[in-house]
Amino acid sequence: MNTADSGGSAGVRVEIEDVQSGALRPRPVPYEGKFVFLRVDDRHAGRALLRRLLPVTSGGLPSADLSRDAWVAVAFTHQGLRALGVPQDSLDSFPRAFREGMAARAERIGDVGANAPAHWEAPFGSGDVHIALSALSSDTAQLDEELERARAAYEDTPGVRVIWQQDVHQLPTGRTTFGFRDGISHPNIEGVGLPGSNPQEAPIKAGEFILGYPDETGNLPPMPRPDVLGRNGTYVAVRKIHTDVAAWRRYLRANSSSAEEEALLAAKMVGRWPSGAPLTLAPEHDDPELAADPQRVNNFLYREHDDRGLRCPAGAHIRRNNPRDATIVGDARMHRLIRRGTTYGPPLPEGVLEDDGADRGLVGVFIGAHLERQFEFIKAEWVNDGNFIGYPGEKDPVAGHHDGTGSVTIPGKPVRRRLRNLPSFVVTRGGEYCFVPGLRALRWLAEMED
């Protein structure tokens, strides 16, 4: 088994070749991709499918030739593992959040009202999602080749049905539907051998992301039984989020007196300029040259240059979701996630302020070894409340679920600014908690006997 070690780690070595490629790699740029949900109606058929999928899956780090780099990842809901016939003792050994599923915990993470599971797109939250396949590549031809191999596996397996599919792609602008570059930040994970995007970030313990290794507490994260099933696996929260781009543009227009002020207000809400240049390094205006430099675009901390949030507000989207070294209530390293956002749907034409009825947004994948203290904590405490930064009740201005009465504080001299009456710019269309096993665990699942 090949392993990887990162400089400066305390001898921790991650069995990277056993970790599914879709778990740790940053999203390729540009990218094309697809998500497929499957239902297993016969456990033997489900295991047969896994045997056919094994040659399609891979582990390890990206190849040197990124144009030929594509991967298919396989994940399971708790109901999916049950449908495959995983023994009850193993099923009971998974953490409570995973066993219950995202829909059952919707209120805890702020999916209420229009975002509640009752309004989700089928089959999210129904219990029918058993297997989730994801495929990503920077090369369309390579993606099609990998997808064809996966498609042949599930279409030739009676007893397994496709129940949902979603194509994702990078828009021609290279940005999200809101007009901002995404996918910039990736953590420095100890023992993986893949550098993080921020040279100033100290390596984070591998156990925050992969089961079987010590986490930031110095302990091993709880791991499902048997060890072959849990080791080198991880959890993902998959979310389909609709973006109301027209509402976003109207709000910016209504609260600005010029195009320049509108651009700055949007940047203050996001924490970066559209190019990706961070406000912490470019507080006055966008800097595409800085944004294009991979050594500089994410090379910053908050405490030394912007602890008071005069450049990047403490409540800005990127700062809430990754406070780095900022002065907050709690330890940010205990809640670090791998975030992978992929765009779906067409862009809203530039300058249009009314919704055209098209479904557009992102499919977000949030990866970590602790669903409760990573994804759920961030959603409940950092996105949907501002206590940790001293602004109780204030939500993430971009990703928070507002009701038209919320506010956001933007520090400034001589006086701060408070945005009021924020509408929601995003709507949850659905979500699932999935387990991404290591490759040996995939083989174990495929070869189970009754």
UniProtKB/TrEMBL annotation:
One of its GO terms (molecular function) is metal ion binding. This is Peroxidase. It comes from the Bacteria. Belongs to the DyP-type peroxidase family. InterPro entries: Dimeric_a/b-barrel, DyP_N, Dyp_peroxidase. It comes from Streptomyces bungoensis. Keywords: Iron, Metal-binding, Oxidoreductase, Peroxidase. Residues 70-155 form the DyP dimeric alpha+beta barrel domain. Its cofactor is heme b. Coiled coil: none annotated. GO terms for cellular component: cytosol. Transmembrane segments: none annotated.
